[in-house]
UniProtKB/TrEMBL annotation, chain B:
Its main location: other. Signal peptide: none annotated. PANTHER family: SPERM-ASSOCIATED ANTIGEN 6, SPERM-ASSOCIATED ANTIGEN 6 ARMADILLO REPEAT-CONTAINING. GO terms for cellular component: axoneme; microtubule; sperm principal piece. The gene is SPAG6. SMART domains: ARM (SM00185). It comes from Gorilla gorilla gorilla. This is Sperm-associated antigen 6. It is found in: Cell projection, Cilium, Flagellum; Cytoplasm, Cytoskeleton, Cilium axoneme. It comes from the Eukaryota. One of its GO terms (biological process) is cell projection organization. Interacts with SPAG16 and SPAG17.
Amino acid sequence: MATLARLQARSSTVGNQYYFRNSVVDPFRKKENDAAVKIQSWFRGCQVRSYIRHLNRIVTIIQKWWRSFLGRKQYQLTVQVAYYTMMMNLYNAMAVRIQRRWRGYRVRKYLFNYYYLKEYLKVVSETNDAIRKALEEFAEMKEREEKKANLEREEKKRDYQARKMHYLLSTKQIPGIYNSPFRKEPDPWELQLQKAKPLTHRRPKVKQKDSTSLTDWLACTSTRSFPRSEILPPINRKQCQGWAQWLTPVIPALWEAKADRSQGQEIKTILDNMGPFRDITEVLEQRYRPLEPTLRVAEPIDELKLAREELRREEWLQNVNDNMFLPFSSYHKNEKYIPSMHLSSKYGPVSYKEQFRSENPKKWICDKDFQTVLPSFELFSKYGKLYSKAGQIV
Amino acid sequence: MVAELATRPQNIETLQNAGVMSLLRTLLLDVVPTIQQTAALALGRLANYNDDLAEAVVKCDILPQLVYSLAEQNRFYKKAAAFVLRAVGKHSPQLAQAIVDCGALDTLVICLEDFDPGVKEAAAWALRYIARHNAELSQAVVDAGAVPLLVLCIQEPEIALKRIAASALSDIAKHSPELAQTVVDAGAVAHLAQMILNPDAKLKHQILSALSQVSKHSVDLAEMVVEAEIFPVVLTCLKDKDEYVKKNASTLIREIAKHTPELSQLVVNAGGVAAVIDCIGSCKGNTRLPGIMMLGYVAAHSENLAMAVIISKGVPQLSVCLSEEPEDHIKAAAAWALGQIGRHTPEHARAVAVTNTLPVLLSLYMSTESSEDLQVKSKKAIKNILQKCTYLPALEPFLYDAPPNILKHVVGQFSKVLPHDSKARRLFVTSGGLKKVQEIKAEPGSLLQEYINSINSCYPEEIVSALSKYHCKFLTSPLLQFCGLGFHF
């Protein structure tokens, strides 16, 4: 209660004081307010500024990091691209190198092989030279043969002449016309006449007998062994002509007489009656000319087989045991066949024909290839040996 | 009577009256066989003499009678009758058609089967003359079944028969590929190839002609002929003494080589080119022509083959032919062949130009006496060679005498070579070529002017202007000395 009383006593003064203080303070209130506001504003400004500064710093840091992150990312991309480009260029360069080598190789080896071409041209020129030489030799050979044949013909003619004129030979008593005493040495014809034998009866040539089975047929075609029983004498006995023809192969004397036309009167009449036909001996010779077999035919066709049989027979004679001798083990029967390297490679030899002959399957008329019906012929093996002698150089 | 008839053909001019024909016709029906034969012989000789008489023979209906009796008479008559048919058939296709119409072909084919070789020969000869005229008649002969019999005839031993049979096959095969195929199907090629080795010249001539007629039609036929292994035997025929054999052998090789590059290669590999070149060297005139054409065909196929022709020394031989031969068609063929050789690459053109053939070709092109064909061919050859020629010494004479259209190509070639070759540039100036080039008048803007400009640009300006101003040869060397010190051409 005491306080209360005290307070109540003081209340008026308190009120006055209160009023007084308030009114004293009033004019300063604005000033102080302003001052406080100023202080506050300045302080708050500082605060805010420092806050902003702080924020700035922080934002700068964030930005810095963020931008550096972006920059690094960009840099990585650029690096990647640059790397990629660099590698691509490298690969390109390497590929160009490889392609260069390969293309050069391909062109040099397959499209235009210079060395192959050179080789080929060399071979062609060598073949040409060989052919030229061969042809020259052939021409020379032919000329030589012709000359030889001419010479022989001349020789024969001269010889025949000499034989016909052998009576002009000089004897001991009388010198011949070619051996005139006024000459230093006798004329060459004189020597020729001396060498020549007078023409005699032409003897029939004796043919040799071959010892193979072909000779039977040969024998029957030679003029000597003309089958006398197979031709019949002419019907009309009075005709001398036919008889002469039939008799001449039979009677050798008549035959020989025919060769020498200057002898024998009765022979002459027979000859005169022969008529416009050819000499029978010539005809028979031509008609029954013996076969001139080639080497291949001169032996029997199965000579090889016969020889083999012969051999086999002899061996069979010598054998003690007739059974074939078998090997001990048959392990080799289970072995797999190992082909040779040549056959077992994937790449076979290039056939000769493929290089030079272009094939067009659409043009083929049948599936099979053409067969060689006749064997090939060597260059000169048939020369002069054809069946007919007509047209050849005699 | 008989003797009279036999001697009559000697005085044929006195027997022009057609009365002879009817006389002979009645005599053909005579009983005595000798008279028939001699009558037929006389008829044959008359018909052989000229075609009016042959027509008269046909008109008087003698042919059916002959054909009818051909079937039954003896061999002398058959020979004489076949002789008549041959004599009639050889003059013209109409007469041959008349013979075919009266059914003579079957009887002739029957004669081909006869034993006597003389009869076969006469029948084959008649068939040959009939088949010679055109394709229809040949077809008629083939339809009568003559070809297998002819092939059999070829194998007979008598040379005359072989000759006639070979010539008959040749005349049949020449008309068309089907006929040639028929001949080949009868197996003729193998026998013909076998007989090339026969020494008789006329037979060889006919065989080679037959083979060349067969092979000329198509590639397959040519290959079939080649497969009969005629190479290298045919090359020996090129060395024969007889001109016709050589000509036919080179014809055969030409027909084979012209089809494909492979066949040409085959010929080259067998050494055929060298043999043909030697053959050309040893012949004169028309015998050379097939050989020249063969070289042209071979060279035309590919550049390797052309190079093969060059190394076989073909070009000097061809240029000799070009200058020596009097006939225009042979010259034209030689010019064509040279063009084919030289047109492939600069190497080839150089090989041709080195032998100095280009001036000859130019003179042939320019001369007024050459035939048109020769002019065209030599122009083409020059153009072909010039397009590839880089051998300048051979081109220089062209600057002086060539006509404008060729001059253009020449200058073009110079403009291609000169920028790259310094020695050539020097030579060009010293030989007066540059001066000549200045003298050429060309329209500005034309190709020629461009070429001239590119040539001029290879040289320093002073020289070019000096040359174009002075046109004096003796001034070039002091000028060169004057401004040439620092220049390296």
